[in-house]
Design goal:
Elements (H helix, E strand, L loop, with lengths): L1 H40 L8 H34 L5 H15 L1 H24 L11 E7 L12 E4 L2 E8 L9 E4 L2 E5 L7 E8 L2 E6 L5 H4 L2 E6 L1
Parallel strand pairs: 1-3, 2-8
Antiparallel strand pairs: 3-6, 4-5, 4-7, 7-8
Helix pairs in contact: 1-2, 1-3, 2-3
This protein binds copper (II) ion.
Copper (II) ion (CU) binds next to loops.
Length: 233
């Protein structure tokens, strides 16, 4: 008995609220027919007075509001009745009217934030990757080298030292002969200045730790003594 009553209560409540909507809607339709057909057509002077006109408008507004309000309430209670059939009507009314509002935004919010977070973290990983790359070539060594200004086939030093990384050798040649400086590891040439006379030219290479040679590539000059060792540590 009691369980049957509990099952019926929400259905009755839903139907009652629907009835309210039906009644309000019917009254509104009847009122509209009365005003337009009954009064408006049959009495050309309707509404006749300002008071009657205002009253007609006021009644129309109230009826429209009643119909809209009952329609909204009915649609809400209709949803409750289907969702919570075991709960009592009073509890079911408050629960379900709040339930669709609270549960509906939650999935959309969680699914919306999850891809956003993934997108936010993914570019961070890719943008974070290039950052370590520019760090190593911080070491830059600039070396000065000069050809013997008196015309001897020799540089002013037989030994140069640099830190691993970017190494620039600037050769000054005030000799009467053309010279250059060539950087090599064993027989592999890594870089060289152009062969020139008067002024200075430079060559830049990236070197890791090891022993390199520098020499003048003008034929006969290296053999005559224009060479040295470049130690990179
Ligand atoms: Cu030379």
């Amino acid at each position: 008995m009691h369980s049957a009553a509990l099952h019926l209560l929400p259905i009755l409540a839903a139907e009652k609220s629907k009835v309210a909507f039906y009644v309000a809607g019917a009254v509104l339709v009847a009122w509209a027919l009365i005003v337009s057909l009954g009064l408006g057509l049959r009495r050309p002077d309707f509404p006749g007075s300002l008071q009657l006109e205002r009253a007609t408008i006021a009644v129309t507004v109230v009826l429209v509001l009643a119909a809209v309000t009952t329609a909204v309430i009915t649609s809400g209670s209709a949803a409750k009745a289907g969702e919570t059939s075991t709960t009592t009507s009073a509890a079911g009314a408050t629960q379900t009217s709040a339930a669709p509002a609270s549960t509906a935004p939650t999935p959309t919010q969680s699914t919306a934030t999850t891809p956003a977070e993934q997108k936010a973290t993914t570019p961070k990983a890719t943008t974070g990757a290039p950052t370590p790359a520019p760090a190593p070539p911080a070491t830059v060594t600039s070396l000065a080298l000069a050809a013997d200004p008196g015309g001897m086939l020799a540089y002013d030093t037989k030994t140069l030292s640099a830190k691993a990384g970017t190494v620039t050798i600037t050769l000054k040649n005030n000799a009467p002969l053309e010279h250059d400086v060539t950087i090599a590891q064993a027989s592999t040439v890594l870089g060289k200045t152009p062969t020139f006379r008067a002024g200075s030219r430079n060559v830049t290479v990236k070197l890791s730790r090891g022993t390199y040679t520098f020499y003048c590539s003008v034929p006969g000059h290296r053999q005559a003594g224009m060479e040295g060792t470049l130690n990179v540590s």
